[in-house]
């Protein structure tokens, strides 16, 4: 069986790492004729070293067979270039299926190109919904799910979301809750990160007078366009970070988009409340997460990682696809208003989240289930 896997963004590299390991394990046991031939295609959506190559190095991912070199651009430009450059690849390789991950422009391009060529689409992390159509990611999710033959959902809620739209198992659709492949990765790589990451020591070296000598800090990630490209929202968030950073230091790895917009809007934080650092590797990110006092983020993946590590999370959005983390009390939607962010973070010592439920995101074997399903049905 031959599959083409399309990736292009940092979160997808983490997810594909888990599935690649599962494929490798399966191939080691399978006969030669039954093995899976995976062709990795990198669209080039993320191309900065700390957003791209470092992940392939750390996660020991196979080198992409094709690199489309799309780079940055508007949503239409990116997606259009991906469609144009991916089509001849699929026509040449003639795969039995095309695997896409998550909700990026690379996801949409992979699904559209495959569907136009009548190749089954396999969507990993299907069924997520924010129900906010102004989010580009929401459009990518919805379209990809409706084009997909295999819909691998990370939670029961995701399966229910699909059912509301008439996407159910049967009639050529395979819909299954197989768990979250990011949980697979976290369980595997967090042990490696614990041995290899030196990020806290590095931060102490860079800022010897800071309080980062002990893991008593807030970790912040900020990258979504609705926050970074809106000067009012971005200013409000940075103001809140400056305020909470007066008591406990704030560590903010700067996504390239965020860095660009902070400079464009002339919103560089003043004082020593916020420690701005370059984007970090996956191992360093895991290390920063599990040792943080709390996490503030607009990233879906980071919300889940905070939950798995048992670290309180404050989401800088009005909604989330990962409603399970909110229901448990480990994640609070604080939006972007300065007052709300500061109030909720300062209330942290008085809040006691409910015990984290086991099994909400699977048991760490989602990747194996993907491989098993594909080998049986594709």
Structural notes for this entry:
This protein is α/β, with parallel strands linked by helices and 378 residues long. It has two domains: 2-180 and 362-377, Rossmann fold; 193-350, Rossmann fold, CATH 3.40.50.2000. The chain contains 16 helices and 13 strands. It has helices at residues 10-29, 53-58, 75-93, 105-116, 136-147, 156-164, 181-196, 199-206, 225-228, 231-244, 256-264, 282-290, 300-309, 323-327, 338-346, 366-377; strands spanning 2-7, 37-42, 66-67, 97-101, 121-124, 150-153, 174-177, 218-221, 250-253, 274-277, 294-297, 313-315, 331-333. The strands form two sheets. A seven-stranded parallel sheet has the order 3-2-1-4-5-6-7, with helices on both faces. Strands 10-9-8-11-12-13 form a six-stranded parallel sheet, sandwiched between helices. Helix 1 crosses helix 7, helix 7 (181-196) crosses helix 12 (282-290) and helix 10 packs parallel to helix 15 (338-346). The longest helix is centred in the N-terminal third of the chain and has 20 residues, at 10-29. The chain is globular.
């Amino acid at each position: 069986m031959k599959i083409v896997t399309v990736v292009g963004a940092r979160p997808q590299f983490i997810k594909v790492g888990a599935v690649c390991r599962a494929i490798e394990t399966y191939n080691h046991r399978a006969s030669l004729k039954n093995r899976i031939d995976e062709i990795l295609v990198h669209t080039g959506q993320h191309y900065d070293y700390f957003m791209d190559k470092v992940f392939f190095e750390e996660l020991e991912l196979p080198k992409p067979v094709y690199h489309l070199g799309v780079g940055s651009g508007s949503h239409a430009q990116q997606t259009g270039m991906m469609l144009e450059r991916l089509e001849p690849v699929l026509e040449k390789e003639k795969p039995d299926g095309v695997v896409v991950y998550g909700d990026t422009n690379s996801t949409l391009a992979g699904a559209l190109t495959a569907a136009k060529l009548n190749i089954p689409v396999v969507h990993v992390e299907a069924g997520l919904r924010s129900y906010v159509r102004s989010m580009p990611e929401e459009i990518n999710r919805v379209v990809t799910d409706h084009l997909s033959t295999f819909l691998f959902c990370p939670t029961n809620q995701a399966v229910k979301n699909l059912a509301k739209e008439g996407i159910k198992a049967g009639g050529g659709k395979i819909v299954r809750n197989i768990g979250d492949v990011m949980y697979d990765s976290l369980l595997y790589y967090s042990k490696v990160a614990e041995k290899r990451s030196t990020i806290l020591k590095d931060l102490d070296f860079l800022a010897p007078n800071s309080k980062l000598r002990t893991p008593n800090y807030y970790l912040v990630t900020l990258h979504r366009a609705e926050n970074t490209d809106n000067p009012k929202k971005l200013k409000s968030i940075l103001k809140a970070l400056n305020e909470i950073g007066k008591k406990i230091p704030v560590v903010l790895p700067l996504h390239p988009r965020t860095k660009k917009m902070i400079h464009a809007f002339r919103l560089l934080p003043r004082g020593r409340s916020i420690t701005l650092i370059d984007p970090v590797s996956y191992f360093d990110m895991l290390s920063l997460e599990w040792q943080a006092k709390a996490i503030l983020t607009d990233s879906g993946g980071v919300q889940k990682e905070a939950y798995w590590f048992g670290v309180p999370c404050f989401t800088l959005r009005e909604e989330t696809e990962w409603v399970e983390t909110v229901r448990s009390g480990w994640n609070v939607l604080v939006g972007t208003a300065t007052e709300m962010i500061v109030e909720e973070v300062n209330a942290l010592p008085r809040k006691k989240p409910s015990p984290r439920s086991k099994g909400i995101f699977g048991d760490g074997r989602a990747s194996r289930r993907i491989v098993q399903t594909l080998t049986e049905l594709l």
